[in-house]
């Protein structure tokens, strides 16, 4: 019993240190900074972000990269950070040169969770009234273009949930995934209890959510939470290459394909199959469908025009 208790304490401190660090060392400047960022953007058209970095990657710059960048807080996801993520996602989503979006953190942490300091003194009314963990968080799953999470280090709580909102997860060998909310007296609030079940099954999802235990990248791979595992220093390149590969295809068809696969989570099979069939028929209304098939028949590379 004592052994178990000690193990649990040890685990508690390892799980929580990142977010507690965030709580103690770093102040997030709340909604004001995101508003300022937005105003600045309109004034000089160069995005001024405080908690994230954005770049265009790949040989022809067709992969949008968003790097969570609150290093001292191990990328704890405060409101201001999530609002910046939403803005960056919307910008890449409407940028015709971008075909896919990669979301990453640092080698140490993808994201250590929601900001506990942000939450510590909230009451029910604050959460309910402000619809806590809603708009900007939901935006990650609303993006039309494919999103790839490149996870090195910790993806805990909100970090794990944001990774699961992405379409594809690639992991670094040292990545750790977990929903440790139970340890601090709450439950996942941004999709963890729902998306985890779909990703890894009920028994494993229950175990992770009820114990708060983390799983390794290798376990996450074996359980189907992630697509593949890579050496930490090669992970980002791998994710960008994947983004480039997707970006070669017609953007309009890619968006239809993503929407159809995404719908399989929501719809019963008969509805999902019907939705897929109609979207399949829709592809025949595009130039790119004709170009794709003509290029195949003519044994040349297709020249997609995203139309
Ligand atoms: C994906 O499905 C979810 C519901 O499961 C929905 O809220 C979201 O808007 C969808 N995203 C896209 C891009 O279709
Ligand atoms: C691809 O198609 C566009 C529009 O029809 C055309 O302007 C462009 O020259 C084509 N590119 C190649 C490489 O054939």
Automatic annotation (TrEMBL):
UniProtKB keywords: Fatty acid metabolism, Lipid metabolism, Lyase, Signal
Q: Which GO terms describe its biological process?
A: fatty acid beta-oxidation
An example of a GO molecular function for this protein is: enoyl-CoA hydratase activity
- Signal peptide positions on this chain: 1-22
Q: Does the keyword Signal apply?
A: yes
Q: What is its EC number?
A: 4.2.1.17
Any one GO cellular component localisation term in the record: mitochondrion
CDD domains under this entry? crotonase-like
* One Pfam family in the UniProt entry: ECH_1
SUPFAM superfamilies (UniProt xref):
ClpP/crotonase
User: InterPro entries this protein is in?
Assistant: ClpP/crotonase-like_dom_sf (IPR029045), Enoyl-CoA_hyd/isom_CS (IPR018376), Enoyl-CoA_hydra/iso (IPR001753), Enoyl-CoA_hydra_C (IPR014748)
Say which family it is in: Belongs to the enoyl-CoA hydratase/isomerase family.
User: What is the name of this protein?
Assistant: Probable enoyl-CoA hydratase, mitochondrial
The species this protein belongs to is Cherax quadricarinatus (Australian red claw crayfish)
């Amino acid at each position: 019993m004592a052994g178990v208790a000690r193990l649990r304490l040890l685990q508690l401190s390892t799980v929580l240190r990142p977010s507690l660090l965030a709580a103690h060392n770093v102040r997030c400047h709340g909604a004001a900074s995101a508003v300022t960022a937005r105003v600045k953007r309109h004034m000089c058209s160069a995005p001024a972000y405080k908690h994230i970095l954005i770049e265009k990657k790949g040989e022809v710059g067709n992969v949008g990269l968003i790097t969570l960048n609150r290093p001292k807080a191990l990328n704890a996801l405060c409101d201001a950070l999530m609002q910046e993520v939403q803005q960056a996602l919307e910008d890449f989503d409407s940028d015709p040169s971008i075909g896919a979006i990669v979301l990453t953190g640092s080698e140490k942490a993808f994201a250590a969770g929601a900001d506990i300091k942000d939450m510590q003194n909230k009451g029910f009314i604050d959460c309910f009234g402000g619809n806590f963990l809603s708009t900007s968080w939901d935006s990650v799953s609303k993006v039309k273009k494919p999103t790839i999470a490149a996870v090195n280090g910790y993806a805990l709580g909100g970090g794990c949930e944001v990774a699961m909102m992405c379409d594809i997860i690639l992991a670094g060998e040292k990545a750790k995934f977990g929903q440790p909310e139970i340890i601090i007296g709450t439950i996942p609030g941004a999709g963890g209890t729902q998306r985890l079940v779909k990703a890894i099954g009920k028994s494993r999802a229950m175990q992770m959510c009820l114990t708060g235990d983390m799983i390794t990248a290798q376990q996450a791979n074996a359980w189907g939470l992630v697509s593949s595992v890579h050496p930490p220093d090669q992970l980002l390149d791998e994710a960008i290459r994947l983004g480039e590969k997707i970006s070669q295809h017609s953007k309009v068809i890619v968006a239809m394909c993503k929407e159809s696969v995404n719908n399989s989570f929501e719809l019963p099979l008969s509805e999902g199959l019907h939705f897929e069939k109609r979207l399949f028929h829709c592809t025949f209304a595009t130039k790119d469908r004709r170009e794709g098939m003509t290029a195949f028949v003519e044994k040349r590379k297709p020249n997609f025009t995203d139309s």
